[in-house]
């Protein structure tokens, strides 16, 4: 009996010890503090530094992209509100000399800021058909004659955009799906302004309303007025005659060597924007001296016009 009591006491002592040991080993759980600091609202005092406005490059405007995604860019000279727009390269690599001329005129305007009278701005789109130019010379930037394949036949594919559309048959004056180029049939697109290149020009002209537009082509050697069955306005006649007189090119009331549909300058006439076509004498020369004189003459005309 005595031994049984001793055994019971030992078991009680061992159980109590185990209980106290287990309690000591159980560390209390400390809640994880919330370390996220709530935002503090700081009232504005009016003395904070101003956030700078985005920088706007006033020297150029990206009008849009070509069929293959190349930028169509207008470069600006002068800060007047009356704008003269010059366009080269509508026929891309086929009329590559119009692109070279546009870049030469840009060099002249950059080097001679006084060439642009007060109140005027000259904008130059050197390459309206960048895909066609790239097709011929492998670039849309400045290039040399050495980069151009020799022979007219080698440059013909560059006349058209990447969808094989003649952009000067894609505007809204007498537009047709099939147009003429000399004795050839060419695509005018699926509709007037079906091509991104012509849409880019359309949007720019409608947004900026230039006082006059000059478009360079080759090759016939002359200054051609524009119209779309509404006669040649007096302002267009004045531009035609002034450019012709200063440059030495003959002046023509219209281009009638063969039927033209969807022509750019005739669309400009349709929306009452005075516009003329300058056709260089051949496909290789820029005739810079003649065209610089013509540009200077119409700048004087625009500067004095009401």
Description of the structure:
With 306 residues, the protein is α/β, with parallel strands linked by helices. The strands form two sheets. Strands 1-2-4-3-7-10-8-9 form an eight-stranded mixed sheet, with helices on both faces. The chain has a two-stranded antiparallel sheet with strand order 5-6. The chain has a single domain (60-304), classed as Zn peptidases (Aminopeptidase, 3-Layer(aba) Sandwich). It starts with a helix and ends with a helix. It has helices spanning 2-25, 96-111, 130-137, 152-155, 196-208, 234-247, 264-270, 288-304; strands at residues 60-65, 71-77, 82-87, 120-125, 178-181, 184-187, 212-218, 222-225, 251-252, 275-280. A hairpin with a 5-residue loop joins strand 1 (60-65) and strand 2. 34% of the residues lie in helices and 17% in strands. The longest helix has 24 residues, at 2-25. Mean pLDDT is 87; it is low at 1-31. The protein contains eight helices and ten strands.
Describe the structure concisely:
With 306 residues, this protein is of the alpha/beta class. The protein has helices at residues 2-25, 96-111, 130-137, 152-155, 196-208, 234-247, 264-270, 288-304, and strands spanning 60-65, 71-77, 82-87, 120-125, 178-181, 184-187, 212-218, 222-225, 251-252, 275-280.
């Amino acid at each position: 009996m005595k031994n049984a009591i001793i055994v019971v006491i030992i078991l009680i002592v061992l159980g109590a010890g185990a209980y106290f040991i287990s309690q000591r080993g159980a560390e209390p759980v400390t809640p994880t503090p919330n370390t996220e600091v709530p935002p503090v609202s700081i009232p504005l005092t009016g003395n904070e530094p101003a956030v700078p406005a985005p920088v706007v490059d006033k020297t150029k405007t990206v009008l849009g992209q070509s069929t293959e995604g190349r930028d169509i860019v207008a470069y600006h000279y002068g800060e007047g509100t009356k704008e003269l727009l010059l366009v080269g390269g509508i026929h891309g690599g086929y009329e590559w000399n119009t692109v070279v001329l546009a870049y030469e005129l840009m060099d002249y305007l950059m080097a001679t800021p006084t060439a642009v009278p007060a109140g005027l701005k000259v904008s130059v789109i050197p390459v309206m058909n960048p895909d066609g130019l790239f097709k011929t010379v492998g670039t849309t930037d400045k290039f040399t004659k050495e980069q151009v394949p020799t022979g007219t036949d080698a440059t013909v594919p560059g006349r058209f955009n990447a969808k094989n559309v003649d952009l000067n048959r894609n505007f809204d004056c007498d537009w047709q799906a099939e147009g003429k180029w000399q004795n050839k049939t060419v695509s005018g697109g699926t509709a007037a302004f079906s091509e991104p290149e012509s849409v880019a020009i359309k949007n720019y002209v409608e947004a900026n309303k230039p006082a006059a537009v000059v478009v360079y082509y080759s090759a016939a050697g002359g200054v051609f007025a524009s119209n779309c069955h509404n006669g040649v306005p007096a302002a267009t006649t004045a531009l035609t005659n002034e450019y012709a007189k200063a440059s030495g090119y003959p002046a023509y009331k219209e281009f009638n060597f063969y039927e033209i549909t969807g022509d750019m300058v005739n669309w400009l006439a349709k929306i009452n924007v005075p516009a003329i076509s300058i056709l260089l004498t051949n496909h290789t020369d820029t005739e810079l001296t003649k065209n610089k004189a013509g540009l200077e003459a119409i700048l004087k005309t625009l500067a004095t016009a009401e």
